[in-house]
Predict the structure.
Amino acid sequence: MTRAIVAQATGGPEVLTLEEVTPPEAGAGELLVETAAVGVNFIETYQRSGLYRVPFPFTPGAEAAGRVIAIGAGVAGFAEGDLIATAEAHASYAERFVVAAERAVRVPEGIAPETAAALPLQGLTAHYLATSAARPEPGDTVLVHAGAGGVGLLLTQLLTARGVRVLTTASTPEKQALSREAGAAEVLDYAGFAERARELTDGAGVAVVYDGVGKDTFDDSLRALRVRGTLVLFGAASGPVPPFDLQRLNAGGSLSVTRPSLGHFLRTAEERAWRYGELFSAIAAGTLDVRIGARFPLAEAADAHRALEGRATTGKVILLP
């Protein structure tokens, strides 16, 4: 037997309990991995609470890093003992997990397992936001909400490295300091951020708003945009955005809104390799810092969810078996 976090039904964090389960096995095209560290993400709180439907009993987790301990039929390019990382596994809140080999990457030497587990989902998200969901040019000003969160810190670094001026929002002095360290030109309070963003752009507004907060920031995010600006809505930490009148986009200056999802930006092996390659190279070069804000034992997954939902964390939250 092995151990995994299991939720028997929807509910609060307390439904996440550590249980003995049958060990998973690598099928054709799959890798069996001994878990070194697990990334904790907001989507798992949505799944646990019932906001997103999943079958129960349910073991959360898509993101993790660990050592390959068995290789399924038809797999090439991996060997037992390889350190791999993925954002596309299933049931990774566990001592062992299985992932399709095509959805895993070997981690280069010199990158620690905890960093490898903390990078994939938020790093790949930050990469597609910076390069694909919108394409701000060098010299443009953008606004990144939750600048001290895991995506916010990485996205700020990636954008500033491309010559983009980044404004962020953050709720506490500690978070504001972390956002500045990541390269934010200005860190704004949530109250009045739209007006302040316009002041900092001589009244024009920002080229792009990256909004993972959702309901609480959406309206003012639209107001912060310049003519023909783009709102990239990539999350709903404060709740889903209610339906709204599309005519507001015309009135605001021919604005655009997009609601991207990571899976649509990992459609080919080449795209996946490109995104991971740029992230690993930036870490190796010292231009991308992956901040791990909190570590919890696997058995304390419920506390990890409480911390995440309570906005009590900065950077990445990970579980350690």
Summary: The chain has a mean pLDDT of 96. The first strand starts at residue 2 and ends at 6.
